[in-house]
Amino acid sequence: MCDCGCNTCETKSTLMLNESLAPRGILSEGLKHHMDANKPLTDHLYRAGSDNYFNLWAEARSLYSREILEITHEDDLAVLTETDLGHYGMFEGKKVPLDFPMEDESIDEAKNDNKKLNKPMRDSSGGKAYKVYVKDPKTKKIKTVRFGSGGLRAKINDKKARNAFAARHKCSTKKDKTKAGYWSCRLPRYAKLLGLKSNFGGFW
């Protein structure tokens, strides 16, 4: 059904199965739910961090990579093409989820080679709300960029606040990933990965 309720205009599906390549029966119940409800994966059915949550992303990624599943939602595509959410890696002998922000960041800041670059996460240091590890093109070293504050969260879905922020900070000119301004201007794009609610994927 379309958003307006008239049931006559068409609403583009966010998830579409190519049944010429695979039958609907191969889908998990969770993926079927998202498809039937025309619900983006980033508006996730399962609790973030649960096994079902990671399994759903892994399933969607596998089907999307084989062109069995067509995905049109911008945020879903960003997760599938720019992150490894749904996959796991080994860190200090432990299996850990990739590209999933953790409340308590336990990685030793001196072990730069183990850090995931350009993936914002929550910052538990108390100074700023978020941090991201980036490689400085000048020094070739990895640095930590901290940005954002809890007070900004409520304004993500406020169009006037976003526009004012973008204008005030000249977000369209922010190109340097080693600066906090670059990441602050793009916070809405990573909102769902950070546990924030946002339907806006551009600049503030």
Kindly describe this structure.
The chain has 204 residues and is of the alpha+beta class. The chain folds into 2 domains: 15-88, no CATH class; 101-194, no CATH class. The chain starts with 14 loop residues before the first strand and ends in a 19-residue tail after the last helix. Strands 5-6-7 form a 3-stranded antiparallel beta sheet. It has helices spanning 29-36, 51-65, 74-82, 159-169, 180-185; strands spanning 15-17, 69-71, 88-91, 94-97, 121-122, 130-135, 142-147. The protein is 24% helix and 14% strand. The chain contains 5 helices and 7 strands; from the N terminus they run βααβαβββββαα. The model is unreliable at 1-10 and 102-113 (pLDDT under 50). The chain is globular, with a radius of gyration of 19 Å.
Helix/strand order, N-terminal first:
EHHEHEEEEEHH
Identify the overall geometry.
globular
Largest sheet: 3 strands, antiparallel
Strand order of the largest sheet: 5-6-7
Beta-strand segment tally:
7
The end-to-end distance, rounded to whole angstroms, is 30 Å
Number of helices: 5
Which structural class do you get from the secondary structure elements? alpha+beta
How many domains comprise the coordinates? 2
Which segments are poorly predicted (pLDDT under 50) over 5 or more consecutive residues? 1-10, 102-113
Fraction of residues in helices? Answer: 10-25%
